[in-house]
Amino acid sequence: MPTAKLNAEPAPKIKRRVLNRDKLEADIAAEAVRVFAECGYEGTSIATVAENAGLSKQNLMYYFPTKQALYQRVLDEVLDEWLERMENLAAEDQDPRDVLRTYIQAKLRFSREQPWASRVYAMEVISGAQLYGAQIQSRVVPLLRKDIEVFEKWISAGKVAPINATHLLFAIWAMTQSYADFSAQMALVLNRKQLTKKDFDDAEQVIVDMVLSAISVRQPACGDAP
């Protein structure tokens, strides 16, 4: 029927507009990450982000009406990436060593591939998480508790040594994220302009060895009492 056909025709155009908008918002957020990381929230201006993205300030504000809305989008994307890795960590049916090795690898890969995003998140937390604390509490805490429950099951099953899982995860976060947040200092100490892939590979080996050693179940020696 003609009416049905007329009603159906705009759908592809609408879909294209949605896709184009999604891509443009992603491009704006990608530019904003670097500016927020370099200048901090207070030092960042919408005008600077717009100029870097090749847009007018008015055009950018059509997609992100306020600086806080843009900042929220940037941090949401960082947190989405991290939470995905935390969800994979809570795989109680797998070998804990394989799960932790994969988790560490993923965290270091994020630090290497998206250092600006890591720094924006770190700066927000260091400043007291005034603008993003509620999201961190509502989204990170439940997953952290879930991961801790998995560790407790592994400990009960004798798969890992008794350990404070919360502080183990804190230590993993600190070790892996430092390769983004403090990469400039590390590069200076290593006397080069920036960290190399080999540096990240070496870091992975050291961190994995330390973590797996911490969770290893000690085998009883011959003279130990049963």
In CATH's first tier, which class of the largest domain applies? Mainly Alpha
At the fold tier of CATH, the topology name of the largest domain is: Tetracycline Repressor, domain 2
The separation of the N and C termini measures 83 Å
Total count of helical runs of at least 4 residues: 11
Work out the strand percent. Answer: under 5%
The low-confidence runs, each spanning 5 or more residues with pLDDT under 50, are: 1-8
Shape: globular
Q: Can you tell me the number of structural domains?
A: 2
Mean pLDDT: 88
The helix fraction, in percent, is: over 70%
- Number of DSSP strands? 0
| SSE ordering | HHHHHHHHHHH
Q: In CATH, what is the homologous superfamily of the largest domain? A: Tetracycline Repressor, domain 2
Which structural class should the secondary elements be placed in?
A: mainly alpha
Examine the secondary-structure arrangement and name the CATH architecture of the largest domain: Orthogonal Bundle
Which sheet architecture does the biggest sheet show? none
Give the C-alpha Rg: 23 Å
Pfam families: TetR_C_3, TetR_N
Protein name: TetR family transcriptional regulator
Keywords: DNA-binding
Domain HTH tetR-type: 22-82
Describe this structure in words.
With 226 residues, the chain is mainly α. The protein has two domains: 10-65, Homeodomain-like (Arc Repressor Mutant, subunit A); 75-217, Tetracycline Repressor, domain 2 (Orthogonal Bundle), CATH 1.10.357.10. The chain is 78% helix and 0% strand. α3 (46-53) packs across α4, α5 (67-89) runs parallel beside α8 and α9 runs antiparallel to α11. It starts with a helix and ends in an 11-residue tail after the last helix. The radius of gyration is 23 Å and the shape is globular. GO terms for molecular function: DNA binding. Keywords: DNA-binding. Residues 45-64 bind DNA. It holds the Pfam family TetR_N.
